[in-house]
Amino acid sequence: MVYGWSGKTLQVDLSTGKVSTAPWDKDAKRFLGGRGGNAWLFWKHSKANQGPYDPDAPVIFGSGALAGTGLIGTSRMEVTVVSAAKTESNSLGNVGMGSSWAPELKFAGYDNIVVKGKSEKPVYLYVYNDEVELRDASGVWGKGTFDTEAFLREDVDDEDAQVASIGPAGENLVVQATVEHGYRSGTPVGASVGAKKLKAVVVRGTGAVNVYDPEGILELNRRLVETVKETKKRLGEAIPRSDGKDAYLQGFLVGDAGVVGNYESHAWRDRPDVKKAYEENYLGEYFEKNVGCFGCPFPCQPLFDVPGVGACIWRCYPTYWPWKLWMTDLSAAFKGTRMMTDMGMDSKEVATIVSWLMHLYEMGVVSEKDLDGVPFDKGNPEALFETARKMAYREGYGNVLAEGPIAFAQKLGKKAMDYLYHNQGMTMRTFEFRAEPGTALGEAISARGNSLRATTYHVVLWDKPARDEYEGVDPKERDDSYAWSKQMFGTEKAIMATEYEGKPAALIYEMNGAAIADSLGYCVSMIRPGRVGAPGSQFGDASYQFAAERYAAATGIPTDEAALFEAAERVCNIERAIVVRDGRTRATETLPDFFFENPVLDGPQQGKRLDRKLFEKMKDEYYALRGWDTETGLQKEATLKKLGMADVAKELKSSKKLAPRRKEG
Fold first, then answer.
1. CA distances (Å), origin 54, targets 50, 86, 199, 559
2. Which of 79-88, 167-176, 332-341 has maximum average pLDDT?
3. Shared domain check, 469 and 579
4. Model-level pTM greater than 0.90?
């Protein structure tokens, strides 16, 4: 009997309508499931340098390995595609989402769905246990994701059916398009789905997932709940907060993320109009309730309902992007978030593009003539609304932007390109890479690129003093964290955000940890429930031993933290194999010259910029620790064989994408 997993992959060919199943349990144990399982299936079903709109390109939906097992916090799903947003190389694109879709897929009897081919007309895939149908989606083609979800639940006559869908942006092959479900995805993978004329995947299951130790799972859940309660008690009224000030406390006081526009200033945090936006308590006025994922007693997704605009979950976005546009009107920011969610677009990607255009507009590089008469003055919300709409429906200047910002920059000329800071064709995330070497390394090396998985979750400690409602860093927790860092990585500097020393080891630890969480289906707050705090100031137990115990109870496989990390190494190496197969090398793993040449102008990190020699030295160390070739960044045959991936090594070797043999010494 298979415990934990369902043991089956559903395979769907949209061109022929053929549906089949394949066993999954054997490979699942190597790559766990979720992100790792999807990556393995992607490796098997995709080709080198495959185009995102190739009918044969796979679109893979997967559940976390522990979804549906009864373990709290294991509800995450994964979508993996050939990324249209990576306009320089395409290759691997993926996103993880919470809510209830993943457990429902497991209840229906499947771990993954591999979709290939292309339908002649719009369809949606309906999975109800063993009944699998491709149904006409003409009635929802062109509709937003909110109406689509409601319509399809009514169409299948089941309010408990779970819907993952694209909006008009995905239908129109906009590279910034997303797949939406529950707490929105926020990463561009939707165009690859739209190219197949696939509007949605609707799942409903009435079965159960077999688990090895049901009583043990109940006890482990009890321990998790007690840990979270103790942590909340320790933190008091800190974060998250229902009054909306968590974004203010995190973005302004705790971390040094969230700079405006193209990194020209940090002083915005103390602007009176920015503070006033929170003091007016817009968020608190329209807060309805916190919404949780499947089976989680700790809901953390705040739902807001604004008259005349509508309802939407709005969590991180007040920190991530409105300030890039100099927007202090939170009502406009909420409207923009909801609009982009409904159209199925990555709001951070779109907002960064608008920020870039605002810079160009102020400098005179672009004019209203280039932008269909839309004024791009800093802070103007109409610039955001019009850009998002025009991109989603491919109107005017939005038609070129829908192919990615590089396409529009090339049309505008060299100055526009000089001010476009991107990684693999996607705009840069909201981090101050010049002051965070480890985060910068993660951004450059991440298989996906533009990846929170390689940046936000890596171990850093911003030792910040108390200010406003932020109580500051507890000295004992700070000292405990430094002691842990020295024990784990040989130096306290490994978790000091602005230091280079020890960063590769710390980054690998957290990247592997993220691979564990994403593959098991855990959210970041439940994989290590005692490790909490705002980004850049997390404290508590950093180990994954508790996760190993929960995995063992569900699957019956004796597991410790070391075994989970070995599986994570496989996950990171299969993703590496994919991007290397598609052209990734050491030379391509860098950041724009801007971050090495232009120092931070003001604020607490004034004068900092990346040191190119130290950055390259970090890459040397990172590759060596991974067992990759330091000269090329290619994987070594011995490393892959040690991980039980000789088949992957063989394929890379045949395409000359394996590290050359070198003499020792």
1. 7, 15, 17, 40
2. 167-176
3. yes
4. yes
595 shares a domain with 479: yes
Q: Are strands 162-165 and 198-204 parallel, antiparallel or unpaired?
A: antiparallel
pLDDT > 90 fraction of the chain, expressed in percent and rounded? 67
> CA-CA distance, 566 to 522, in Å (whole number)?
18
Q: In a 10 Å sphere around its CB, with 0-12 CB exposed, 13-18 middle and 19+ buried, how is residue 51 labelled?
A: middle
Reported as a single tens digit per residue, the pLDDT across 576-600 is 999 999 999 999 999 999 999 999 8
Question: Would you state the pLDDT for residue 170?
Answer: 98
Please count the structural domains in the chain: 3
507 near 438, Cβ under 8 Å?
Answer: yes
Question: Both 391 and 442 in a single domain?
Answer: no
Strand 8-13 and strand 112-116: the pairing is parallel
Which of 344, 358, 356, 327 has its CA nearest to residue 422? 356
Pairing of strands 198-204, 123-128: parallel
Give 35-87 pLDDT, tens digit per residue: 999 999 999 999 999 999 999 999 999 999 999 999 999 999 999 999 999 88
What pLDDT sits at residue 254? 40
Which of helix, strand or coil describes residue 311?
strand
Cβ atoms 520, 549 nearer than 8 A: no
- Whose structure tokens read 């907002």? 351
Within 157-276, strands assigned E span 162-165, 198-204
Residues 184 and 295 grouped into a single domain: no
CATH number at residue 404: 1.10.569.10
State how far the alpha carbon of 286 is from the alpha carbons of 334, 439, 657, in Å. Answer: 11, 34, 54
Tokens of 49: 């340098």
The pLDDT assigned to 57 comes to 98
Backbone angles phi, psi at 637, to 5 degrees: -60, -40
* Of 257, 659, 635, the residue nearest 447 (C-alpha): 635
Query: Which range has highest mean pLDDT (156-160, 183-187, 449-453)?
Result: 156-160
Residue at 662 is within a domain: no
Peptide bond into 322 cis (omega under 30): no
CA-based nearest residue to 427, from 451, 447, 450: 450
pLDDT digits (tens, 9 = 90+) for 543-585: 999 999 999 999 999 999 999 999 999 999 999 999 999 999 9
Please list, residue by residue across 124-162, b when 16 or more beta carbons sit within 10 angstroms of its beta carbon and e when fewer do: bbbbbeeebebbebeebbbbbbbebbebbbebbeeeebb
Nearest to 131 by CA among 202, 70, 181: 202
**441 and 422 housed in the same domain:** no
Mean pLDDT, residues 263-273: 65
Task: Check: CB of residue 125 under 8 Å from CB of residue 200.
Answer: yes
| Angstrom distance (rounded) from CA 164 to CA 4 | 23
**Quick check: 283 pLDDT over 80?**
no
Sorting pLDDT into bands at 50, 70 and 90, what band is 427?
A: confident
Helix (H) or strand (E) holding 12: strand 8-13
Nearby residues of 399 by Cβ (< 8 Å), 6 or more positions away? 390
